[in-house]
Specification:
Mean pLDDT: 83
Distance between the termini: 17 Å
Oligomer: single chain
CATH architecture: Clam
Strand content: 35-45%
Helix content: 10-25%
Radius of gyration: 18 Å
Shape: globular
CATH superfamily: Lipoprotein localisation LolA/LolB/LppX
CATH topology: outer membrane lipoprotein receptor (LolB), chain A
Low-confidence stretches: 1-28, 252-261
Amino acid sequence: MEWYRRSVITGMIAYGMVSLAYAAEPLPPGALAISKEANTAIQQMGKTLANDVSFKARTIRVYQDSSGDFLHIGHTINVIARRPDRLAINVTGDDGASKLLYDGKEVSAIDETDKKYIQVAMSGDLDKVMDEVSERLHTDFPLADFLTSDPAKSFLTGVISGKEVGTVTIDDTPCRHLFFTQSGGTELELWVENNDRALPRRLVVTYRALPGQPNFIAELSDWNIGVKAADATFQFQPPPGATRVDPASLEGSGGIAGGATTLGGRKQ
């Protein structure tokens, strides 16, 4: 699961989804030590999310400052996805505001705080475009696995074990608490609603192999399954006074500001 891929314009999408775990390859069928209960919950979740969706996420990420101290940065992220090829992500947080839009023909990434933006011609479904955005713009989104054409498969990619811990209540909704491990030292905790929809309500990712064992925490809410979003939702209009940045300037720099970025956090 790719939860760690990277701020087109500093702070736009920071410390994002390296596939939630070091881009591990899927294991052969039958090799996963995942309990029936955990697998059933993920398959239910995947079926629900394989629709047009919108949701809100409040996230906290850990990042290391110039002194080597581990600090936390918070973001609020609003996502609208219309399959197969429309996406709008709006981020506000401690390091500013940013936006990423895909209208089926072009990806636009905007740093609304520094008033800079880039536009790159792209086409294809959301799976293809999110991979291309990661590679070409050095930008990632920590919750991208929920938006692929097969969310269950994406989430379980690289997972080597999984179980159901128990049930808890989140905002008056009974939820199943699931725990997964990935090769590469990453642990995933996921809380999904204890019903047929199995909507994700909380995610915690812990990177045990990284210095300080940092983590990413997301509280998910305001789910709208089957949302009807107009074309205008995904179309880009440059903010007044904004400066366009040449995408070629990103080559070898890791991002517009010289550092890779992620929607909703700071790079580790």
